[in-house]
């Protein structure tokens, strides 16, 4: 009853997911690998999955009869065709962010899946599997009363020179965009972007920090600070204000030190450490559902909604504080 | 060398300041009292200042030769004429908020004081004397690097039915308006108000909560949540985000309990308890300066700036998310 | 390369470890089950390990050729003979606490393992695998300077009526006894027990709370409060005081709520939730070492040291505040 | 109605109390000063109390008709005779720690005061006036249920070379000795001292750290770590464990910073800053009671109990972990 998985794209994240399946998680094994750079796939096979077969193309891997389910961890522009191929083959597919590079592309996947008639796609929004967000969601449902406001921050110590203003949406805010829809069980209706002066460490092609303001159908107002040159650490903050009280995302576990005239606790500096445990959980969830021939967790519809919202936020970045409307078509019954 | 003080207005706050001067602070005594309701003044005299003389009018009290300095704690609409009279008499005057009910009124006081040629007026913005804000300001100056963003919240458990939308500015935000100018050593250039859905406990004449967004000359972007039906407590939050790190206003002192499966600490529920110590400090500061014949602390100019900003915020409340410009004339040299 | 595991004892913990191996961890499968109550083993097979073979006795299971490694999760009195049998068979064995019910029994296992010449035994002291203790140990090694004092507490909300004074050592303190040896890389030289008045919820056969004071070879003084009727929650506290500073065991992750005039966070009430993640890690560690034919982690020697220390603590419980010496023979080279 | 105070001893603390009375507190003035070093008294007069009269001896000051009440802030060995003289003169007297240098001396004061028939003496145990301890006491009375255990620590960053082992009791623990009697409304019955290895920064005449264990009449067990070379700061910790929960002394107010990959808050390093506000409150309390001709707050009996307990603790320091009994005579009705 071991799920046989094929991995398309063996870069950093593909290699890491392969390690997870082979060495950490129960119930699955990697039986097929593919990468545009065959040497990369060869290396992952040698290190982690000696019994896996190599395929020249992702399409061939998807078609292979021994492959039960597919992981798409290749370059973003290739996600859409691979996911569409997996859906066409009726095989469960886990796709890393983004589901597609355009909202239209994501919508094509939604349409294909709807036509197929049951869920096959899980998108790699791992925060939904983070113990902190799960606890926050439960606290909101049980204690705060209905949400009215969300105050959030997404801070990185620094970014490479190539990081420019729209990437603050596509690469950074994208996580908040998805996880707040899930946290609030809600959808967005508008986005607005406000800028303070630029941080001294930023540059002419990057407005940093920025504050994105989102409104939801239920009337929740969300402000998210994005600050990718904050220097002090990788820090994800989220406070939900409800009718009766507030709830705040737990801080990562840290030893409390008293040292050098300071009470102090470490803050992470590498984003890869922040949600590391949630990658295990999301993939275990994929294995469980794919073993039954389907998919649960973040859906193609969630990936589409994130793409539409991202587009609106980027437009809002250029709209001088004006609200940009966010409109989604009716949600297909498959995703209710 | 005891400073002889006359108090105009012997309601709750006038009585409390009289108690402070008579029983808590060094260097001053209340020698004169006045109130439109003479019985009230009589009662304060009986309880707290048996040697004080009663005056039928504030003007007479100001003119009395034994009065060295004046406290104006009467009804808001009377502040302007009393302060102007004190300035005309060359006597230091402490005036509770608001300095005047209109920006024009506040400006007349500024002009009178400038004409007089030295500072005589202190406005009752007590947060500048709070140990928490003082520590925050020091932390910003020493540790965070130059400020870029401020995230703040001003929450009350509930308000009376008569509290309507503009009061969220005049009665509530007014404290943040002043204290952030001081905290950041900056001035405002625009205000914007954003609304989520109304809280269930609010009513048709009160938009609650609301988020006020202020921009400053130096480019700092400030968001302040005002939520006067938050139910859970009186809670003042302030986080400054600077170039190198963040600093957060200390929580009020509280015992850490482990009880009933919860780590827990009390939150205050009555605003009167939150800054109670700062009233002592601000009045002691007034006594010190007035004993030298002048005034320090929050100035008439600060009162004027707060009035201008309040007017813009109220206008922004009716402007559907649009920014309203805030313009101040050049600051007179007296207030540099 | 899947490790084939036989499980002796299919009660609560044996069932849970079987689930772990079958559904959560990579690299192993349960191929054999045994229990004095065969129906219990039958039920675990049906629910979790349909391919496992049932054995009438633990000895038969240990001898079975398809069994690579053994889990001993049976009744405490049977641990010693099963572990000895596994060592005699040269098979890696994971044994839940206690390694044996007497120090002499534990010593017999040490001697058998030493005679065998390499490590085969891992004892189920899971706290060494807890992320919090691991972080604390790192903090002590990197930040606090050499330890001088440890202040600790082990609190349960309540215990069954059958829980009597010595169980505070054997069932409760046993975890601290092991984890502090590891945390400090040290051994004990004496134990002392001090009693306050009894808690109202306790009874005549249970002194509760009590404070156990341990001294180590390196001169560290450790005080541990044991309070098994503390009412408010299951709470494990540990603060290490070193030459330059202090470090405190992290609190379990919890949402920070502001509600009902309180800042509040949940405290666990069920001990099973407190170190749940560490069971996964300890068993994964066993699988990794057993796959290489050996064992790492808490050793038979650690089990023996814990047994000797427990005996001294129980003696100290009856010694009216006097210190009882703790003496261990020289540590065999196998355990250096 | 201004209370006229004479100050005996114008060193650091005498000067500071004079400043308090003259510049901070209401209702009193310093009218007389005395010091063995007349130049010191002269300097305090010049700086702070120009209208005060200088006296050659404390006895003369006490006898002076214009002196309503006396502050004894001279060298410890002189406290007893000055306090006895004040009691003999029927004048309220505030005496800094220690009330007397021996338990017998303190008892003579108790007997004199009892003979006088009403309270005149307040001892300078300022922690009872600290807002943190007051809040802790209230929490214990309202929330934790009856106390069973107290875990405490008194840490200084460093001490002068002349600081030797008994000073850990007389100069350091003395504050805990008094404040826990008040906190618990209880008396001590035994003391025991336990030592870990010496800290590297300590020296041959100072055992540091040490743990003092006190038992009370009501059966509370108290452990207090004294560590006067802890390096990292001046840190006072206190946790009360009651029948239903625990309460912890609040940390001093501090800004929460996120900086340099750390969440951090300052710890004080100078003991003079830790309870600074409580000095104002204790003296204001003295002024209030002395204005009525009596005394409240920490009594001569409290000073006597502290002296008896200190003696037992010092004896326990030399008793190798044995408990030393603490016996007080029956409490005179005056102190009920």
Automatic annotation (TrEMBL), chains A, B, C, D:
Q: Which domain of life is it from?
A: Bacteria
**Reaction catalysed?**
myo-inositol + NAD(+) = scyllo-inosose + NADH + H(+)
EC number(s) per entry: 1.1.1.18
Q: Which SUPFAM superfamilies match?
A: Glyceraldehyde-3-phosphate dehydrogenase-like, C-terminal domain (SSF55347), NAD(P)-binding Rossmann-fold domains (SSF51735)
This chain is encoded by the gene named iolG
Domain Gfo/Idh/MocA-like oxidoreductase N-terminal residues, every copy:
3-125
What Gene Ontology terms for biological process does this UniProt record contain?
Answer: inositol catabolic process
State how it assembles: Homotetramer.
Q: What does this protein do?
A: Involved in the oxidation of myo-inositol (MI) to 2-keto-myo-inositol (2KMI or 2-inosose).
- Keyword NAD (UniProt): yes
Alphabetized, the UniProt keywords read: NAD, Oxidoreductase
Gfo/Idh/MocA-like oxidoreductase C-terminal domain mapped to chain residues: 145-319
What's this protein's family per the entry? Belongs to the Gfo/Idh/MocA family.
Task: Provide the top EC class.
Answer: oxidoreductase
Tell me one GO molecular function of this protein: nucleotide binding
Q: Which Pfam families has this protein been placed in? A: GFO_IDH_MocA, GFO_IDH_MocA_C
Q: What is this protein called?
A: Inositol 2-dehydrogenase
